[in-house]
Amino acid sequence: MDPGNREERMGRIEKKKVITALLIVPPIIGGIALGPSPTLGLMVLIATFLGLREYFRLCLPRSKPIEKTIGVGLGLIFSILALYDKTSAIIPFFIFAFLLLALLFMVTSDSLGSSVSNFALTFLGIFYVGFLLSYVTLIRNMTDGKIWVLFLILTVWAGDIFALFSGVLFGRHKLYPKISPNKTVEGLIGAILGSLLIALLYSYFFLPSLNRWTVLPLGAGLGFFGQLGDFIESMIKRSAQVKDSGSLFPGHGGMLDRLDSFLFSAPFLHYFLSLWLEETL
Questions:
Q1: Count of domains for the chain
Q2: Same domain flag for 134 and 174
Q3: In terms of domains, do 159 and 81 share one?
């Protein structure tokens, strides 16, 4: 690759993106590593609230205030259930949320033609943001949960960083331009390799009993599902015809833009630990 072209591509990585990351990453890591047990749960609760607000602004911009309020409230309850480790209540609550929303949209919808789609999009948002993000807190509640949450965050963030640099420096083959014209096959490969690298390094220092051959599918899976979450959020933004979900973080977009990589990687890690490593840790 031509050096001049490489420098030009590197220039596209905005300085404000780096500055914002330097400002927000240390407090998050420090709060999780050094803070009391409820710290992460409160972080997830706040992130869920902001993420749901952005979701409803993107997908249901014309919905009534009461519909958005109840949608956000139902999504937050998942975070609260996870915070108090009430996993047995999750399925009953899903049924309750479904029935409540069905009744809500029967009453509030001006047209039955739009009531079903609005109901479905609201229920999707509760599942997509509220339920999936609650897995971060569920991981924290597991044995050595703090170590595993930090493993999740650092590994997924590494995947995002490697995807960015790999795509900018080496990107040639578009992954799926219909949804995200800037994402490339090289970026996806870089994400998986970056997650693998950090997973191996982290496990070496903080999870020495973890078999290195186990780390390989774990790190690769986190890298893949992190990028899948990014891709799905890009589909939502594309349908809403916006570039970012919000402007909360300069250079990074909104809260959903920062959460998307964890929405599928967190459940993956949770079930990996529950099903695969349960007898080996």
A1: 2
A2: no
A3: no
Cα–Cα distance measured from residue 211 to residue 141, given in angstroms and rounded to the nearest whole number: 22
**Residues ≥6 apart with Cβ < 8 Å to 89:** 81
Residue 232 lies in a domain: yes
What does DSSP say about strands 180-184 and 174-176: parallel, antiparallel, or unpaired?
antiparallel
Q: Which residue among 77, 110, 141 closes a domain?
A: 141
User: Partners of 184 in the beta sheet?
Assistant: 174
In the predicted model, is pLDDT for residue 133 greater than 60? yes
For residue 64, what are its two tokens?
A: 């009534």
Helices vs. strands in the chain: H and E counts, helices first: 12, 2
* Average predicted confidence (pLDDT) for the chain: 89
Q: If you compute the radius of gyration of the chain from its CA atoms, what whole number of angstroms results? A: 20
- For the chain, the first-to-last Cα distance in angstroms comes to 45
pLDDT in tens, 88-97: 999 999 999 9
Mean pLDDT for the stretch of residues 78-107: 94
Q: To the nearest whole percent, how much of the chain has pLDDT over 70?
A: 92
Do 229 and 156 share a structural domain?
yes
What residues contact 49, with CB distance under 8 A and at least 6 apart?
72, 76
Domain that holds residue 163: 1-35+144-276
Whether 162 and 271 map to the same domain: the answer is yes
Q: Could you identify the residue written with the tokens 């040639």?
A: 172
Full-model pTM: 0.90
In contact, 140 and 146? CB cutoff 8 Å: yes
Structure-block tokens of residue 150: 């930090």
> Is 80 exceeded by the pLDDT of residue 138?
yes
pLDDT value at position 279? 45
Q: Are residues 150 and 126 in the same domain?
A: no
